[in-house]
Structures are given as C-alpha cells and as structure tokens.
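forwarding from the other thread:

> can someone predict this with flavin mononucleotide?

sure thing
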Amino acid sequence: MKTRITEMLGIEHPIIQGGMHYVGFAELAAAVANAGGLGIITGLTQKTAKDLTNEIARCRDMTDKPFGVNLTFLPVMKDPDYPGYVKAIIDGGVKVVETAGNNPQQWLPILKDNGIKVIHKCTSVRHALKAQKIGCDAVSVDGFECGGHPGEDDIPNMILLPRAADELEIPFVASGGMADARSLVASLAMGADGMNMGTRFIATKEAPVHDNVKQAILAASELDTRLIMRPLRNTERVLSNSAVERLLEKEQQLGADIQITDILDEVAGVYPRIMSEGDMDAGAWSCGMVAGLIHDIPTCRELIERIMRDAEQLIRQRLDGFLDTREAS
Ligand SMILES: Cc1cc2nc3c(=O)[nH]c(=O)nc-3n(C[C@H](O)[C@H](O)[C@H](O)COP(=O)(O)O)c2cc1C
C-alpha cells in the first residue's frame, strides 16, 4: 500500500509503532521495521544520551530498514538531557523522530538541518495545526481512546480524524484505538495516511516486556482502563489495577488540592518494575481501550501482514461489494 506516509518515511506499510516507555527498545523497533512498518525507540527510556547511542546501534545491528526515535516533552521534575539525546539521534543516522508532549519547536531547526522527518503526536486539531505551522513533516493524531496521554479535550477518533483531515495539509496518521485492518481502513477512509499503534504492539512476541504485561492486555476488556491525573491536567489512560484504584481514591479525597507528590508511590519509577519484572500492581501504566480488541500475541511480522492482507480484502471485497449493483440490475 502506498500513502503519503509510506512515501515520506520510506516504509512498505503505513503502520507506525508509537514510542512507549520501557517497551520501545531496539528489539521491538527492529521487529516492526523488518516487518515493513516504522519501529520507534523510546528516547527517554534510555537513561543517558550514551545509552541512546548504544540502543540506536543495537537496533541498526538488527535491521537495515528505517526506524525512528521518540522524544517526549512532558512535565517532569528534572529536565532530561535533550541536547544529548538529539545529538545521539543525529550521530546515529536516525531519519525519523516522533515528538510528543510539549511543543517541539526549539528542536526543529537542528533536526531538519540533519534531514530528519519530524512526526509530532498531538491530541487536538489546534495542536496539529500548530505542528504544521512550525514545520513538522507529519502529525500523529491521538484520539481520546489512546493509551497514555489523551490530553484534556476528550475527542474520540470518529470526530478527531475527519476534523484533522478537513484542516491539515501535511499527512497524518491515526493513533489511539488502532488494532487491526478495520482500524486501518477506517482511518484511511477518514483521511489519514496510515495508523500508529501502541498497546497492540505490546502484545507481540518481540515486545521486550514481561509476559505478565502481555497477558494483562489479553485479559483486559475495553472497560478496564481508567483516566488518572486529570486534576493535575496531565491525564493518562492506564490499565486498572490496585495502585490505580488507590490513586483514584486519593484524587477523590484531595480534590483540587492534589499535588503530584501525593501520588508518587503510584506513578514514579514504576515502569521498570511493571514492564521488566512483571509486577502488575506496582503502579499505573499506560494502556489503551483497544485492549478489548487484542486476543493474541503474534510476531510483529504476523500482525502487520495480517493487517495488510485483511485490509486489502476489506477494501476489495466488503467495501467494493457495496458498490457492485450488477446482480441487482
Ligand atoms: C505502555 C505505554 C507507554 C507509552 N509511553 C509513551 C511515551 O513514552 N511517549 C509517547 O509519546 N507516547 C507514549 N505512549 C503512547 C503511544 O505511543 C501511542 O500514542 C498510544 O499507545 C496509542 O494508543 P493505543 O495504545 O490505543 O494504540 C505510550 C503508550 C503505552 C501503551
């Protein structure tokens, strides 16, 4: 399949694996790249710029296809070494960066001067238009369904994607709630040039996370996510567990007075314990409503090939069939 996104990124299929904290290691990014999608290493999961340099090199050893690096600009207590990470990306010859969170404007000149395509992930049309204005090459439009940070507008993709299509000139991919060929074909119908998946890629053979995480996604339905940190205007969609329920109780008790320091036990430094050690109640971890559509643990190649095969069938048979009036006439 050829879209503006496959052309821009030099990939075979219009499928991107979004950056994911403690999931987006070289193994997953390379597996997605080898299957013809765009795999993404999560920059900030690497503790230092030197570690990111090594991770990029590890990924390059596993694939000769294009892959990207995610740079997330979220409110954190101590600013990470962004200049060091950007240098590691440039020196590592990476040609795609997925930015997320705050406005990436200050990093665009250096990234673009080095021939790097920037895809900014955003959760509203106004932020997508801003990204276009400051010179991002594409955007990833993340609907309210998404795992991670859906923003504060709560607009689901059935509305957000056509709104984005009506306003944007640069290509965009649909993100949030994407799992299969139906997601891809629907996204294309609504004006996107491809799709970005997070949660779906965690439940793959190559995702380098503890099996408990994959089983938790398989066991979850679309009813099992919760929104946390809304009072802090840093809303995150996570899978429900005992830590999340405790956190939500604190939010209810403390109301508008809640501070990030009140919930540190539930959110700070919990990802390695969950993703690497499989301690599923250690804290809050991002997960999309799409968990309700995930029932197996394929390889990335099996997943992507299945999506592309089923998408072709959907378009050529189901959709085209609706137009076929020969029998009726
Ligand atoms: C476990 C997990 C961790 C994530 N970490 C990040 C991150 O560090 N930076 C980022 O930009 N997005 C992050 N995301 C969001 C994904 O890149 C993607 O936008 C989102 O998962 C799409 O929604 P979906 O899960 O419904 O596919 C994370 C998502 C998950 C599920």
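The CA atoms of residues 29 and 88 lie 17 Å apart. thats all i got for now
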